[in-house]
Write a structure and sequence with these properties.
Distance between the termini: 27 Å
Largest sheet: 4 strands, antiparallel
Number of strands: 4
Strand content: 5-15%
Length: about 180
Amino acid sequence: MVYYRRNRVPGGTYFFTVTLANRRSRILVEHIDELRASFREIRRERPFQIEAIVVLPDHLHTVWTLPENDTDYSSRWRALKSRFTRRLRAQGAPLLANSKGEYTLWQRRYWEHTIRDDEDLEKHLDYIHYNPVKHSLVSRTADWPYSSFHRYVRRGWLPRDWATAVPDSDDLGFGE
C-alpha cells in the first residue's frame, strides 16, 4: 500500500485540486447547486474558510484556510465527496459502483499544496481564477459563473476585466 505524505500545518492555508474519475464528465457544473449545498453543510459541521474556488466540469481548484490548531483537511474532503455523491444518488443520477460497492464518481486522491507565503498564495489565487480561460471554457475570466472571481470583483480586489485568453500561452508563471 502506498502511503501519501501530506503536509499538515495547524491553521494552515492549502491549495487543492480535486478531480472526477471520468475526466469527460460535466457533473460538477450540471449539479452545481448540490455541490454548493454539500460545501455549506460540511463547512457548518467542520468549519474552514474558502479563500478562492473554481468549479470546472470535471474538477475543481480551491484554497482553504483551516481553523487555528486544525490540520484535518482530509476528513473534510472525504465528507464533501461523500455528501455530494449521496446527493446525486438521491436525485437518481446514474453513478457506477465498483466491485466493493463504492461509487466511482471521484478520483481517490487529490492534489494538496501548503501555501508558503503571500506570493505563493497570490499565484495560486491567480491560477484558480484563470483556470476556465486556460481550459478554453471561456475567453474572459468574468464569463465563467462557477468561480470566486466574482466575489473578488464585488469586493474590489480584482477588476472585472482582469484576465482574458492569451494566444499561445500555456504557462503564465502562476500556480502549479
